[in-house]
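Hi all, posting the design record for the shared folder.

TITLE: backbone redesign
STEP: 1 of 1
STRUCTURE INPUT:
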């Protein structure tokens, strides 16, 4: 018997509130609930859900949460489950945004944010490195295929470090190029994407905020850190909604709060237009996930078997990995104080050399930031 909607609301709200640690933690919590404890979904169905949502752009673990709720109670269940999964982290990050982006924020709060922000470049490198093996395997064993993989990887890294918001064009171009190379679709079917994207980029005000959020939710492949170059150039350089340091804080907040890293876009929205802007940005960023699942879940088997989709992801995947690695450069350059460099080095050793947890690294970095603020070192 399917669970009640109130049960779905309560369980998904709980997972959204305790889901620290990113997608691996979210997947483990959903599996424990739906497969092991309640036995609502078979292990095979759950694994199929993971595979299918990993083929979609946007936050995969959020889409998996929506998909599991859809399996239980259809579209209504998907909407309730998805919203309950998203809301705890969104509320937390909005509360922290109010503190950090106030006209005169508390010095200790700024210190903690500056410390955590200094560590996120190491987190980006860790995220990229973790995605390399699967992406390399997807490329195949042919020399030409692996040469293209390297080209896509470098293109994504350069785009993230240099082109900022235009990295989305590189991701699309890499995916479409690989698709055409593999003769999975006709060339004329790939036209029309770039003109639409370019037209949206020329907007201003709330239109620009919506475009930034849309890129985050509908055009980002490969993991949460792809959103960094998608947002940084617009939020900091183009529209000057926030400073480089504040953007660094936003990325750190997206890591240390529960729920998906995509919540970072709400901080950008808050900087651009207050609470209303934060809610608008979050709504635009998460809307594609709901649409992908509620409209397409019945076709997930076709999606997984589509040679066109597989070819596109074979190209877009390494470009996304490169973009995540390139985002580490963007994040590292946003560091403004010498003591933060020391925090970054310590975090790199903790995460990359000792292979310890990301959340503990960020909390430790925040603690070092508190110490820096207490002893009078600069934090703004």
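Okay, here is what came back for every position:
SEQUENCE:
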């Amino acid at each position: 018997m399917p669970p009640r909607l109130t049960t779905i609301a309560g369980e998904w709200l709980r997972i959204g509130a305790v889901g620290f640690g990113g997608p691996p933690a979210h997947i483990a919590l959903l599996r424990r609930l739906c497969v092991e404890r309640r036995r609502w979904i078979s292990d095979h169905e759950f694994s199929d859900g993971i595979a299918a949502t990993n083929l979609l752009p946007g936050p995969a673990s959020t889409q998996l949460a929506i998909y599991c709720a859809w399996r239980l109670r259809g579209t209504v269940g998907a909407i309730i489950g998805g919203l309950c999964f998203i809301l705890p982290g969104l509320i937390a990050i909005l509360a922290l945004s109010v503190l950090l982006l106030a006209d005169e924020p508390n010095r200790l709060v700024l210190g903690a944010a500056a410390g955590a922000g200094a560590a996120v470049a190491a987190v980006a490198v860790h995220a990229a490195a973790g995605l390399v093996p699967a992406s390399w395997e997807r490329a195949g064993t042919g020399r030409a295929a692996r040469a293209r993989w390297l080209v896509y990887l470098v293109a994504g890294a350069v785009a993230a470090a240099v082109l900022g918001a235009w990295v989305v064009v590189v991701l699309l171009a890499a995916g479409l190029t690989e698709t055409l190379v593999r003769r999975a679709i006709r060339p004329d079917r790939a036209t029309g994407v770039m003109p639409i994207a370019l037209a949206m980029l020329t907007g201003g005000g709330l239109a620009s905020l919506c475009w930034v959020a849309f890129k985050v939710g509908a055009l980002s492949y490969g993991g949460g850190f792809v959103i960094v170059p998608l947002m940084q150039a617009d939020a900091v350089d183009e529209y000057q909604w926030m400073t480089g340091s504040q953007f660094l804080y936003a990325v750190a907040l997206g890591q240390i709060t529960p729920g998906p890293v995509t919540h970072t876009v709400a901080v950008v929205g808050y900087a651009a237009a207050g609470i209303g802007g934060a809610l608008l940005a979050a709504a635009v960023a998460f809307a594609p996930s709901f649409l992908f699942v509620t409209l397409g879940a019945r076709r997930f088997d076709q999606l997984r078997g589509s040679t066109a989709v597989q070819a596109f992801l074979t190209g877009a995947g390494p470009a996304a990995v490169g973009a995540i690695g390139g985002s580490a450069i963007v994040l590292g350059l946003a560091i403004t104080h010498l003591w933060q460099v020391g925090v970054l080095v310590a975090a790199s050793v903790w995460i990359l050399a000792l292979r310890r947890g990301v959340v503990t690294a960020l909390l430790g970095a925040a603690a070092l930031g508190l110490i820096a603020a207490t002893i009078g070192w600069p934090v703004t």
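COMMENT: Residues 60-100 form the longest helix (41 residues).
Let me know if anyone wants the other runs.
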